[in-house]
Structure to design on (124 residues):
């Protein structure tokens, strides 16, 4: 599967984590947008406008992600954090020629994204 937002996420089974985060993007005018993220057992990370909406985009973390950066690892390349947030609350995933910037509410929320066993990301 590619990172194209037009592709259908085929193996979406078994939600591992879900919740609202912010993703940096847009076609002409890029900005931080609130998106509903779901991480599935098959390592698909998909994002939607809200629960029950169609897929806006996705990446398979295991097979497509070639680089993960967190916080200050992105200091020379990351977009300006959204109001009330900091670089330490962000991570990026790179794969298939694209980099996705994602922002959490705080450092505790960032830890919950990656901590095994935590099933729900705090709502923004």
């Amino acid at each position: 599967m590619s990172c194209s937002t037009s592709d259908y996420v085929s193996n979406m089974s078994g939600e591992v984590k879900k919740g609202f985060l912010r993703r940096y993007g847009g076609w002409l005018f890029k900005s931080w947008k609130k998106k509903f993220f779901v991480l599935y057992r098959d390592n698909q990370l998909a994002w939607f406008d809200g629960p029950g909406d169609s897929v806006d985009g996705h990446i398979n973390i295991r097979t497509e992600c070639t680089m993960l950066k967190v916080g200050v690892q992105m200091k020379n390349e990351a977009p300006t954090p959204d109001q009330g947030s900091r670089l330490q609350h962000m991570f990026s995933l790179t794969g298939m020629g694209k980099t996705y910037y994602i922002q959490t509410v705080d450092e505790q929320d960032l830890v919950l994204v990656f901590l095994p066993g935590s099933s729900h990301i705090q709502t923004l």
